[in-house]
Amino acid sequence: MSVNIDELNPQGIVVELDKYIVGQKEAKKSVSIALRNRIRRMKLSEDMQRDVMPKNILMAGPTGVGKTEIARRLAQLSGAPFVKIEVTRYTEVGYVGKSVDSIIRDLVEESINTVKSEMAVTVETDAKNAVEERILDSLVPESVKKQGSGGIMSFFQNPQPQVSPETHRVALSKRDEMRQKLKNGELEDTQIEIEIEDNTPVMPMIGGMSPEDLGIDLQDMFGGMMPKKMKRKSVKVKDARRLLLPVESEKLIDKDRMIQEALERAQYKGIVFLDEFDKIVGTNSKSGPDVSREGVQRDLLPIVEGTTISTKYGPVKTDYILFIAAGAFHMAKPSDLIPEIQGRFPIRVELEPLTQQDFERILVEPKNSLIKQYSALLATEGVDVEFTPDGISEMARIAYEVNSKNENIGARRLYTVMEKVMEDVSFKAPDIEKTISIDKDYVFQRVGEIVKNEDLSSYIL
Questions:
Q1: How much is the pLDDT for 149?
Q2: Residue 22 is assigned to a ligand binding site
Q3: CATH fold of 5-117+260-350
Q4: Is 343 known to sit in a ligand binding site?
Q5: What pLDDT is attached to residue 96?
Q6: Is 83 one of the annotated binding-site residues?
Q7: Which ranges carry the AAA+ ATPase domain (predicted)?
Q8: Domain 356-460 has CATH 1.10.8.60
Q9: Which pTM value belongs to this model?
Q10: Is residue 275 a known part of a binding site?
Q11: Are the C-beta atoms of residues 350 and 58 closer than 8 Å to each other?
């Protein structure tokens, strides 16, 4: 979303969210106020800023009504680092499973990747030139002297061959010739050998946890003593560009500035979406899984309240991170959460189940609605698909009816219905007539009988 968020008031933020999400006005209103308050906070004095904390939000509503999408679009709108976390993956400290501290480490990684991508754009031209030189090194190896890879072992590596001045001059001439062919795109399918870093993942160490889970960067600890592990790979020139561009971009990026910017974004703009929040609500039982569930709530407390988490990039304060918790709360109520957690989510929003009319709007209104997606996909095959109003209404009716008879999965049911309706067209394109009308009769022929058979619809739709 290319919008200047600083210029949007809460009403303007809702207008932007309306482009992608149908209904749920109260939820949009709450998140827009939370986002605008962040901007307002930055205009306060430093002394006042320290005391203004974000008001965390608890969304309650059935699956498929837009809880996750609202949070994700809000993050995109504000350019904020965003992570969606299923809290059921985490366990109380002392149990086997991921620690809740890794939530913040995931947020920081997301922020690092975002800032790195932005900085990579600024150095793209220089990085492409460096990639070209490395490709030429592989095409004309005699034109360049190889360098050691650094570290203690480099003293014993890559003995330099003696090259006569005449041989070197001929090699440079050949290099210039290859450079021109490279620019003309004549060597894209030529096979070359390149040397890239071997990024074999680090094996878990303690209790199934990797060093990153503990906030440890092994590369920083040992990188200066031992050389990076490299491997040679035979690829086409066009693939070498793709592999080498991020490597050369990273060399040109100011890493200290990147880390500082990423940590600040994570701390002051970060949004953490805690999904399946109702699943960590325990009963009054003092044993079994309920103990661990309540333990997860207690472990989340300091993070939501505000603490400092160690990451491999440095310490991160969680005081100003916005937490949005969401759950269906069918079997439990928000009031069943431990009191301390309830107090950390002062804003409560109830999301409404979707109606048949909502389904019709979802098919048509969003910026990249399902109908627009399918029309665009089939247009690439030269097939023009037209959805009539009665065809759209029929798909919405069927989705709503199946949700009523089976498990209610909200708007996700539209994907299933739409896929079934468009199955034959997608399979036979482009060897079919170039204009196809999806009307009520067409929709009913494809899925009408399935809906009537409840046993069949529960498996297919």
A1: 46
A2: yes
A3: Rossmann fold (3.40.50)
A4: no
A5: 54
A6: no
A7: 53-355
A8: yes
A9: 0.79
A10: yes
A11: no
